[in-house]
Every structure is written in C-alpha cells, then in structure tokens.
Specification:
Layout (H helix, E strand, L loop, with lengths): L1 E7 L5 H9 L5 E4 L11 E8 L1 H4 L2 H9 L6 E5 L15 E3 L10 H14 L31 E5 L2 H19 L4 E2 L11 H9 L2 E8 L20 H11 L3 E7 L23 E3 L5 H10 L5
Parallel strand pairs: 1-2, 1-3, 3-4, 4-5, 6-7, 6-8, 8-9, 9-10
Amino acid sequence: MSDALIVHAGPDAELLLSALRRIGIAPSSLSIHVSNRPDFDRYKALIVVWSAYAIGNDALKACVWKERHKGKLFFVRLDDSAIPVGFIGLHNTVDLRDWDGSASNPAFQALVGGLERKVGRSLGSKARPSAASKPSPKGLGSVASITSRTKIFLCYRRNDTQAITGRICDRLVAAFGKDRVVFDIDSIPYGIDFRDHIRDEMAACHTLIAVIGNEWLGRAASDESCPREPSDFVRHEIQMALEQKLRVIPALVGGARMPNPQDLPKELAAFCYLNAAPIDPGRDFHTHVDGLLRSIPNA
C-alpha cells in the first residue's frame, strides 16, 4: 500500500506538490477526469485539493464521496471557492488560501504531521524549516484542530427576536465583515437533510450566539418552535455547536432569563449553565453589544 495520493483537478496541486517535494516527500498525484478509475484502496491517505477547478468537477466529487467514511481524507483549501454542500462537515480542512508555498507555514507543517500519523511513519528525507517563530494555529498537534473556523453563527427564533437579532447582525458585520457572519440559513437545497446543512454551515464557525427572548421556549408545551421538539432548528444548532466545542454565548434580550435544565432536552443541559450576555433593546443596546463583541474569541 502506498502512503499518500493528492486528488485534484487541473493545475491546482502544483504548489502543494512542490512544497512536499522540497522536504523530501513525493506523494502520487492524480488529476481526476470522467475517464479515470482510481484505485484509492492502494493509499493510506488521500489529500483532496479543493479549488475552483475541483468544485466544478463532478467526477472528482463522486470519487471523494465514496471514500468519506474510510478515515483517510485530508481536505486542503487553496482559494475562496465554496466547498460543495455535503462535503464541508465530512473532514477538517487545512486552510492554505493565503499560502506562498513556504514549508515553514504552520498549517502546512500540521498537514504533514497529520499525514505522518495516518501512515504511521516519518515522511520526507530533508530537514524541515521551523515554524517556532511564527504564531501557531490553536492546537497545532492535529489536522483536526486547524480547521478554518473564522465565522460567527447567529442562532435565534423569528417569532421571538427577529428585529433585535438583525441589529446585532449589523454590529457584527460592521466589526468583522459580512463574510464572517452566518445569519438566516434559509437556502437549504431541496432533498437535503436540514441537520446536514446546519452542520456544514457551522463547520466554518468558531462562535455561536444564541439570541434568547421571552418567547424562546415557546408559548405552550405543544409549540413546534421550542427546543423540546426533535425537529426544532434552534435545538439542533445549539446541540451541534456544543458537540463541536464552539464558544456558545447566550444573549438575553429584554430581560429574558436562561432556561432551566428541565425546560430543555438532555442534549442541551450544558447550555443552561453558560454565562449569558444581557442585551437591552433600548438606549443601552450599543453598550451591551460592545461587551458581547469583546467576548468573541479569535475575532
């Protein structure tokens, strides 16, 4: 069995191949086309290069999809092209979008380390430049910890806090940029499990802000928009954020209080004990949101 294969489309893997070869690693490379019939079972690790070329290549996506549960995929992102729906949450993604090809780049070094752990031996015959002088990604020891998580997820109920959540969103966009705020994930493609869609959106986020008003729990036990319901969107958003170890910040609007454990399903029990940020919809709104912004990590 060979060690590693780079799966790509077009010329987009040349920079990565060149950097690996400079430190003595010579993986196989395969640009996938419709006529290709790759034998992925020969390889211990598959490096999938996502780029504008790859996301438009149906043959590549079909091949990668078949390998998704075998535990040997490493996703590398080279440009700002959106990874296709269904693939984002499958595996953690190494972010090399601003990479200049340097072997001392911390994310590149972490990718090499992850490959070595997967194949069970040291790769490369040449000394590697040290990245000690550069800031390291949090938890550099594993590829799983260097996922590109740069966004903030706003979780709310329209029948509870729609207006003030829009105001909070405006402040977040002004502070961090529109592309770093996930707000209103309505565009779920037909035939797609909404839980998978939420998971895909959340894969790029490091923080979830749960905006809670006085109607957040629902008006009655039979209310479908309440966290006790298995199909409730808000329930799934918070549960996934807790499972993925995101920073979860409850924001209490207009004097709302945190729910009690008995009000929530057991999967959300930890949510009840999180320190919440008060948000006054009146004259203290901007002061309170300033405090909320200061609590957002990695911003």
